[in-house]
Amino acid sequence: MGFFDSDIVQQEAKQLFEDYQGLIKLGNSYGKFDREGKKLFIEQMEAMMERYRVFMKRFELSEDFMAQMTMEQLKTQLGQFGVTPQQMFDQMNSTLERMKAELDRQN
Length: 107
Fold this sequence. Notes:
Oligomer: single chain
Protein name: DUF1825 domain-containing protein
Number of strands: 0
Structural class: mainly alpha
Pfam families: DUF1825
Largest sheet: none
Organism: Mastigocoleus testarum BC008
Order of helices and strands: HHHH
InterPro entries: DUF1825
């Protein structure tokens, strides 16, 4: 069975995409959130990034041709912006850390 033939992989991909889209939409109102709302949003984004990191690791470790092609496409797309997948995660984590530090200063 191919990597993408797995119902589990398909469901996780669908759920990740939907959750990410929902958080991005919610994030448009971040400035209007109270302190607890901002804290919750940051925690949800951190959890999302961890789920995404695990999902991407599955692609990386899979011997399935389509999974390997998907990873190569992602690397190529990110490479057009001068970024590797690891740098993408690092930048996202840095952004979340800055958001947390800003929240702490508002205390």
